[in-house]
UniProtKB/TrEMBL annotation, chain A:
<protein>
    <submittedName>
        <fullName>ABC transporter substrate-binding protein</fullName>
    </submittedName>
</protein>
<dbReference type="InterPro" id="IPR039424">
    <property type="entry name" value="SBP_5"/>
</dbReference>
<dbReference type="GO" id="GO:1904680">
    <property type="term" value="F:peptide transmembrane transporter activity"/>
</dbReference>
<feature type="domain" description="Solute-binding protein family 5">
    <location>
        <begin position="90"/>
        <end position="456"/>
    </location>
</feature>
<dbReference type="GO" id="GO:0015833">
    <property type="term" value="P:peptide transport"/>
</dbReference>
<dbReference type="InterPro" id="IPR000914">
    <property type="entry name" value="SBP_5_dom"/>
</dbReference>
<dbReference type="InterPro" id="IPR030678">
    <property type="entry name" value="Peptide/Ni-bd"/>
</dbReference>
<dbReference type="GO" id="GO:0030288">
    <property type="term" value="C:outer membrane-bounded periplasmic space"/>
</dbReference>
<keyword id="KW-0813">Transport</keyword>
UniProtKB/TrEMBL annotation, chain B:
<dbReference type="Pfam" id="PF19300">
    <property type="entry name" value="BPD_transp_1_N"/>
</dbReference>
<dbReference type="InterPro" id="IPR035906">
    <property type="entry name" value="MetI-like_sf"/>
</dbReference>
<dbReference type="GO" id="GO:0005886">
    <property type="term" value="C:plasma membrane"/>
</dbReference>
<keyword id="KW-1133">Transmembrane helix</keyword>
<feature type="transmembrane region" description="Helical">
    <location>
        <begin position="101"/>
        <end position="122"/>
    </location>
</feature>
<dbReference type="InterPro" id="IPR000515">
    <property type="entry name" value="MetI-like"/>
</dbReference>
<keyword id="KW-0812">Transmembrane</keyword>
<keyword id="KW-0813">Transport</keyword>
<feature type="transmembrane region" description="Helical">
    <location>
        <begin position="199"/>
        <end position="219"/>
    </location>
</feature>
Length: 540, 337
């Protein structure tokens, strides 16, 4: 290249920069598409379209829920604030047309006209293959199946082309509900087997990139980290045909921009805005705002009972008396949560979970308890939280830190990055921390098996061990399996009382799922998985 | 010239090998356990172990390294766990998005900064010199995410002039057929003017944000370099010979002042390409900066390694291009490896 040529081309480039755009040619087809399309904005998107995949993240569950069918699903009922809420105890058929529960097995008859997205009929073979897959691939799906005592492929039996029988490994109240969670979805086995390989017998690589189900929607375009486009499956047999033809789900990392998009009317739904934004949007009245408490979920302050001085129940009680409960509700959550503290002293324990403790902020009592425990001058410790949820966790921990300082407990705040949080929890070395847990299956004993049982699952973050607790939990599980209501109720009340008396973890509040929608969008339903169900949504 | 290029590329090989080793070790030294992260919220210890095995993280480090380099040699950058896609594909798809944004931002920045710098140099101490100083200082002092958010608030939220900050195209447009990956150029090639308009209107705010930020180094460098050249003997001679001031400034002074400006430009370009993470976040831009940061946050090794390697290769190429440009602009510069 010659010098002069180069200089010429540079000036040419500058001229191109000043090029004016062609005038707008706005087509009416685009406006039409807009009215039939639902635009969802959220912070993050799926990393895998198949819940059976390795390390599928939570947004991936939403795709699975809407693009695959299960044998059964839940009926709706009216929930808190009149929001449609899934009915834990009532099942409705989805792929099955009939469910017959026997003593040690359940038999499903499949809908004859049910078809996969590629037109192949849904058969009993597909159901068995999919359930086999869920219990065999390992990781989260297998674990979730195990929670309902579904662990072996022999439990799933093909009776004929349209009939499947599931044998119970043991009597377990959670088996049926576990068949209605996201994991036991039915996959197009012939299609996936064609695309499987020796190294990948379950075809996970194939279903990671595309949906191969019979659900109400199918993914037509997925750009990881940017957008997911889903089209309605007009042949869907799992329920009434959904109203929304197309769903575009865009990832907008900035919370401020998600709010701006909603307020300007460009986005239809967003569901992970900070609490403060939700309160302000609610007050402005321009949008439909729905807030529903997490089912079976609690944010708590945990104390590791294996680490001194939290091995002393008096110390734990002192901390429970020093938490600034109401301040947290007001300043951190802006009232968007259900308090789990301050129940009246004479209130009887209920057969329910979560339920409020009787603790209130009482610094004098906390000081006295601490002195009684042999720490009149307090002690030093660290208070850890997950930076992935810093919006709530950080102000919460600062308030707790301030309050604990009043009784002489000096805390250093330890911020742990999201990627690292679970590793640290697993090590069970954090003395004092805040965390949230919520279970898909909404049963008190389910929560307690995870969080308080001596089997020491990852969520028993306090390393709490108590023979009495274990007996009460297994008592309740066994009583529920055989329908012994009286024993069940005594045991549930028993373990709740014990959890509050020993107080290894201090419940703070039940968080809310906050969804903001345009006024012309309706039909939001609350599900145990807390993600959106597009099938019920309507855009006027 | 060709031997020179070949020689330069040869010299780049050891640094690339160094980059491969260092990024591999650094990502492994990061705190956080990807297996625990990807095992999901309800995973048991066994589930985490199963995931670790699947991901190959249970093998000794040296074996992981050889497997990694072997894959690299076959053009396989590995697969991202967060997005679930092969890293090479992702980078190929995302690099044009970042490049388009950065290039446009740089063009806007150059077209403001260079005239501003030249004017400031020709009239030192005047109001235009002060204006140059104030704008560049303000531009570089404001954090990019702040400038970006202010622009969004003003032009999208308040005034409604700008489209929704939803990435490269309005939701209801589809991307033009890929030729270069740059939507503006691809839309023109495909003669889809509506798409071109949509892509351009999406680009204006983020490009302006980048431009405001990069004004300072370019304008200040232009000014300094022009001042030096204007004080030199040949300019005085040209003036004494009675040449018009515009000929003196544009033909004689400016061309000679360009060398340091080009160097600055290359630095600014490579810096912006990797560091416009915040702009990408604010405008939901599907570029490589936000990709790398997200991967880093979730201890996702493959994309981080792929990103650093790509950036290293880009730096090498960019430096090579700048060196060639030197020779074109100033024949006195002889290129010796």
């Amino acid at each position: 290249m010659k010098r002069r040529d180069f200089l010429k081309s540079v000036s040419g480039l500058a001229a191109a920069g000043a090029l004016t755009p062609a005038p707008a040619i706005w087509s009416s087809a685009k406006a039409q598409a807009r009215s039939e399309t639902l635009l969802i904005v959220s912070e993050s998107g799926p990393n895998n379209l198949d819940i059976h995949g390795v390390g599928t993240n939570v947004p991936g569950y939403e795709v699975s829920w809407n693009c695959y069918d299960r044998l059964i699903s839940h009926e709706m009922k009216s929930g808190p604030g009149g929001v449609p809420y899934y009915d834990r105890d009532k099942f409705k058929p989805e792929l099955a047309e009939d469910m017959n529960v026997g003593d040690m097995s359940v038999t499903f008859k499949l809908k004859k006209n049910a078809k996969f997205h590629d037109g192949a009929p849904v058969t009993a073979k597909d159901v068995k293959w999919s359930l086999d897959r869920a219990v065999s691939v390992g990781g989260f799906p297998t674990f979730q199946m195990g929670a309902g005592s579904l662990t072996k492929t022999e439990q799933f039996v093909v009776v004929d082309d349209n009939t499947v029988r599931i044998d119970f490994a043991k009597k377990d109240r959670l088996t049926l509900p576990d068949l209605a969670v996201i994991v036991p979805c039915v996959v197009n086995s012939e299609l996936v087997k064609k695309n499987a390989s020796e190294k990948d017998p379950w075809g996970l690589e194939y279903t990671k990139q595309q949906t191969a189900g019979s659900g109400a929607y199918k993914v037509t375009k997925w750009t990881a980290g940017t957008e997911v486009v889903m089209e309605r499956n007009d042949e869907w047999t799992g329920g009434p045909l959904p109203k929304v033809k197309r769903v575009i789900w865009r990832m907008v990392p900035q919370a401020g921009n998600r709010r701006a998009l909603l307020e300007r009317g460009d986005a239809d739904i967003s569901y992970d805005l900070p609490n403060k934004d939700f309160v302000e949007l609610k007050d402005s009245g321009k949008l439909n705002i729905v807030s529903v408490p997490y089912s079976n979920g609690v944010q708590y302050i945990g104390m590791n009972v294996k680490i001194a001085p939290f091995d002393n129940p008096k110390v734990r009680e002192a901390v429970a008396c020093a938490i600034p409960y109401q301040k947290i509700m007001d300043a951190v959550l802006f009232g968007l949560a259900k308090p789990m503290f301050g129940a009246p002293a004479d209130k009887a324990t209920e057969v329910a979970w979560p339920q409020p403790t009787k603790y209130v902020t009482d610094i004098t009592k906390a000081k006295a308890l601490l002195a009684e425990a042999g720490h009149p001058n307090g002690f030093e410790t660290t208070l850890s939280f997950d930076l992935g949820f810093a919006g709530v966790n950080e102000p919460l921990c600062v308030l707790v830190q301030e309050s604990l300082a009043q009784i002489g407990i000096k805390t250093t705040i330890n911020k742990i990055p999201g990627a690292n949080w679970r590793t640290e929890l697993n090590k069970k070395v954090l003395p004092l921390y805040t965390n949230v847990f919520s279970g898909w299956l909404d049963y008190p004993e389910y929560f307690f098996i995870w969080c308080y049982d001596g089997k020491n699952s990852i969520f028993n973050t306090m390393s709490y061990q108590s023979k009495a607790m274990d007996e009460l939990i297994s008592g309740a599980v066994d009583a529920a399996a055989v329908g012994n209501t009286a024993k069940y109720e005594t045991d549930v009340k028993g373990f709740v009382d014990l959890a509050f008396k020993d107080i290894p973890r201090i419940p703070l509040y039940q968080p809310y799922v906050n969804v903001a929608m345009q006024k012309n969008v309706s039909g939001y339903q609350y599900w145990f998985h807390r993600r959106l169900d597009y099938r019920a949504l309507v855009k006027a | 010239m060709l031997t020179m290029i070949g020689k330069r590329l040869m010299f780049a090989i050891p640094s690339l090998i160094g980059v491969v080793i260092v990024t591999f070790l650094l990502t492994r030294a990061l705190p956080g356990d990807p297996a625990a992260y990807f095992a999901g919220p309800a995973a048991s210890k066994e589930a985490i172990e199963q995931i670790r095995k699947k991901l190959g993280f249970d093998k000794p480090l040296i074996e992981q390294f050889f497997r990694y380099t072997n894959d690299l040699a076959h053009g396989d950058f590995g697969t991202s766990l967060t997005t679930g896609q092969p890293v090479a594909t992702e980078i190929r798809n995302r690099l044009p998005a970042s490049a388009e944004l950065t290039l446009l931002g740089l063009i806007v920045s150059i077209s403001i900064a260079i005239p501003l710098g030249v004017l400031a140099a020709t009239r030192p101490g005047s109001w235009i010199d002060h204006l140059c100083r104030v704008t560049t200082t303000a531009g570089v002092s404001l954090p990019v995410f702040f400038t970006g958010l202010v622009l969004v608030y003003l032009f999208y939220f308040r005034l409604g002039w700008s489209p929704a900050p939803l990435g490269r195209l309005d939701v209801f447009y589809s991307a033009p057929p890929t030729v270069t990956g740059l939507y503006l150029i691809d839309a023109l090639i495909a003669r889809e003017f509506e798409t071109f308009r949509s892509a351009l209107s999406q680009l204006i705010l983020p490009a302006a944000t980048l431009a405001i930020f990069s004004l300072a180094p370019i304008a200040r460098m232009t000014r300094a370099s022009m001042l030096a050249v204007l004080a030199s003997d040949f300019v005085r001679t040209a003036r004494a010979s009675g040449l018009s001031p515009s000929t003196v400034i544009v033909t004689y002074a400016f061309r000679n002042a360009m060398l340091p400006v080009i160097t600055t430009l290359s630095m600014v370009f490579s810096f912006l390409l990797g560091a416009n993470v915040l702009v990408e976040k604010v405008f939901a831009w599907p570029g490589i900066g936000s990709y790398a940061v997200e991967a880093l946050i979730s201890s996702d090794f493959a994309p981080v390694q792929g990103f650093v390697l790509t950036m290293a290769v880009m730096y090498v190429l960019l430096n090579l291009i700048i060196d060639i440009l030197y020779g074109v602009i100033d024949p006195r510069v002889r290129l010796e490896g």
